[in-house]
Amino acid sequence: MERMAIRSTLRYICIAFVAYVSGYVFSWLSYEPTAMIGGLWAVISGLIVSEPATVQESISTAKTRIIGSAIGSVFAAIYLLLFTFDAITYALFIGVASLLCYQVNCGQHVKLAAITISVVIIVSTVSDINPVLNATLRLFESCIGVGTGVLISYLLDKCFRTGNEQL
């Protein structure tokens, strides 16, 4: 098996474990019924930022992930304070959020904002969590996952570096 495959496999295992446990515990301390969602959301964030080839690219992706999650969390909280869920207002609100992102030169964050809006709205709809708490938890879980993904990618790059070759 080639070293790149081993490194990637180790990276995914480490991120899945560390991000899940960290996100789960963080959410459990604030609102136990959504703790598993917190772990999952942290893992997703960690895996997203660990994908680029270099740690610098991971850091750039991390910034986009955090900003997109922050935008999405704010929009989702606003939506949940104004509306009860239905597919039409949900889809239209994602459209409004997308247009506003483009208007303020945040177009690169639209996809992650829309994903975050979706997660926050659906979790709030299927549970009795306060919408603002839910949006806040999902944002912090994203940050936990992002930090985990960048840190583990960095550490594995250091461990697998041989001479000038970086896997």
Automatic annotation (TrEMBL):
InterPro entries found in the cross-reference section: Memb_transporter_dom
What Pfam families does the annotation carry?
A: FUSC_2 (PF13515)
Using the record's annotation, list all stretches that form the Integral membrane bound transporter domain.
37-152
Domain of life of the source: Bacteria
* Record membrane topology: Multi-pass membrane protein
UniProt entry tagged with the keyword Membrane = yes
Q: What is its main location?
A: membrane
Where would you find the membrane-spanning parts of this chain? 12-29, 112-133, 139-156
Q: What are the UniProt keywords, alphabetically?
A: Membrane, Transmembrane, Transmembrane helix
Where located? Membrane
Indicate what this protein is called per its UniProt record.
Answer: Integral membrane bound transporter domain-containing protein
Write down the species.
Answer: Endozoicomonas elysicola
